[in-house]
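Late entry, written up from scratch paper. The run itself happened at the end of the previous shift, but nothing got recorded in the book at the time, so transcribing now.
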Amino acid sequence: MKIQTPFRKHDQRFLVSILSWCVVLCCFLAACTEENEMAPLPQDEGISENGELKEHRANQRPSSPLSVSNVSASSHDGNVPQNTLDNNFSTRWSANGNGQYITFDLGSSKTVGSMDIAWHKGDQRIFDFKIRAGNSTSSLSTVFDGFSSGSTNGMETYNFSDISARYVRITGFGNTSNTWNSVTEVDIYGGDGGGGSPGGGSGNPSSLLDLSVWSLTLPIPENNDPDNPMDIYQPQLNTFKHNTYFHLNSSGNAVVFRAHAGGTTTPGSSYPRSELREMEPGYSGSRPKASWSTNSGRHTMYIKQAITHLPPVKKHVVAGQIHDGGDDVIVFRLEGKKLFIDLNGDDGPVLDANYTLGEIFEVKFVAHNGVIDVYYNNMNSKFWTYDDPAANTSGCYFKAGCYTQSNPDRGDSPSAFGQVLIYDLWVSHD
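Output as recorded:
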């Protein structure tokens, strides 16, 4: 026979008290610092700018990093600056607030040309930061000003023009999730006689493409506002590049446009973009946006491009479009292997039923007399004409780049991305 022991009231009160204190303790620990979580191990593989797998940075660059004699920081939360040099991706330096920094002392003046940085939760957040270097901490020069990719926990290379420096400092301005600055590992490398974006050409995209009639939207927040993507206008666009989302490829013959699924989106869209938007000729600033009618004049956009990467779940990317005052009118779109013309959500003619990622193709839109002619690979022979009443519209402008048609709600991870390379681009209005 089973004998039950009575559960006394004071035992019940004691148990409730213990459980209550456990809840309070858990809440306290969670509130102390949002950063106090174990960082996942770095990825061993990444994606090249041509959409191909590449080995981790340690297998790519045989040269050894420079030795660091001392490391210090403006602040920390118990995750000390020395953790960035312990070859352990599960430890980190963390400090909360705009302008917090970590400084590496090389012991003496040396030529410095690049820096590898791994970020805590680097595959979930994009960090805003600067790299400064110099022979005195009171006179440091900015050698890099930009963002992390938001796509990896492993090392990311930030290349810059060679500089003589004893001190190298990372100054952080928070990330897309909060105001924390958090670095897991750092390597500093000597000069290489060059500079520029990692794995890319050293020039700006404007050295290859005429950007005078374009503005640029990137899938990262403006001023840490998660509802406001970053827009770059002329004249700043002429000297602008981003090491992840908008830069020259390694050959210097194409501009790389990348947009990750978890990126910041524009109002009215749930998908991220790294995309050019047509503006009025000779504009300066944000207001003079292009707006023309398909039934007045002749309006042409030519693109030579290659789609090099798709998100793994929803494999859709838009690589060029005509937009009117309310919505897209006609776009070039890739879904898996099907490269086709999309007509505001309806499938139009197929350009290539078996497109291979990285294959270069040429396309052209010509809008006139209320219709839109489409050219594909043969610029002297019209492929198809869109003569539906929807083609007769106004408030129009061209767009070109990478408009990734996926987000985490579609099943892709925030770091999944689409990527387009543009080799040539021009517009004309007659």
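The chain has two helices and 24 strands.
(Scratch paper discarded after transcription.)
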